[in-house]
Amino acid sequence: MTNAYLQKLKILKNTQANLKNEELIRNLSCEIAALAPEKEKSKAMAICLRKLRELKNEKGRTQKACQMKRVNLGKLFENAILSADIILSEKGKRIEFSFENEETDCDPEAIIDTFLNLISNSAKFGKGENIRAELFKKEGFCCFKIKNEGAADFSSFSSGGGIASCKNIARLHGGRLLFSTDGKTTCSGFSILHRDESFDSWQGPSFTDYLEDSFSPVRVGLCDVEARH
């Protein structure tokens, strides 16, 4: 195990996840992934992914404005769900997704981070194997709902660094974050105001890109359940 690898890993662990350190965290993560000995690779990647998730959560929590783009929400979430399902299937979890092909104006990167945060919480804290995700339009809002068939520890499910980020992103889009449980199922979701402006269209990456990129938004978003060390 090289001194350079251990030194960079120590620096990463001690670096606070904030915007000022974003470039440093991203550079260190790439360097650590390249330098890690084979037997340490999985552990090193888990540490890097969690630090990147902390960074995303902090960015979402402190975000003041949205970078609006015209987005087909069905396509956006279908790509993320396809790759998330493949990743989580290795942990005994499955995701079913039903959606309406709604187009609206939103900050796509912030919205996908919020969606993945809730998927991750559902997979981590929910007791059931099956997760159902839905996208639908209701009363002028685009609504996203994630439902776990098993009951969850609601206090754990609805707390943590990612929840403050989810609340802020929903608020910036004119919506809100919601949780509910009846002891048998646990639901989380958020809404965003349906907007019809003239922003440039945004094309997200395909699920193949998400799977091939070790630091993709999906892998970062699901790192709590993808690997535990």
Give the CATH topology of the largest domain: Heat Shock Protein 90
| The level-1 CATH class of the largest domain | Alpha Beta
Described by the principal axes of the CA atoms, the overall outline is globular
| Order of adjacent strands in the largest pleated sheet | 2-4-5-7-6
Going by helix content, strand content and strand pairing, the class is alpha+beta
Named CATH architecture of the largest domain: 2-Layer Sandwich
- Average pLDDT reading: 89
The strand count comes to 7
Q: Per DSSP, what share of the residues sits in E-state strands of 2 or more residues?
A: 15-25%
What is the CATH superfamily classification of the largest domain?
Histidine kinase-like ATPase, C-terminal domain
List unreliable stretches of 5+ residues. none
Q: Considering DSSP H and I runs of 4 or more, what fraction of the residues is helical?
A: 40-55%
SSE order and pairing:
Elements: H1 3-14, H2 22-35, H3 41-62, E1 69-72, H4 73-89, E2 94-99, E3 103-106, H5 108-125, E4 130-138, E5 141-148, H6 154-157, H7 161-172, E6 177-181, E7 186-193, H8 207-212, H9 217-221, H10 223-226
Parallel strand pairs: 2-4
Antiparallel strand pairs: 1-3, 4-5, 5-7, 6-7
Helix pairs in contact: 1-2, 2-3, 3-7, 4-5, 5-7
What is shown here, in short?
The protein contains ten helices and seven strands.
Describe this structure in words.
There is one protein chain. The protein has ten helices and seven strands. The longest helix has 22 residues, at 41-62. Helix 1 packs antiparallel against helix 2, helix 4 (73-89) packs parallel to helix 5 (108-125) and helix 5 runs antiparallel to helix 7 (161-172). The mean pLDDT is 89. It is globular. The chain is α+β, with helices and mostly antiparallel strands and 229 residues long. The two termini are 18 Å apart. It has two domains: 3-62, no CATH class; 69-226, Heat Shock Protein 90, CATH 3.30.565.
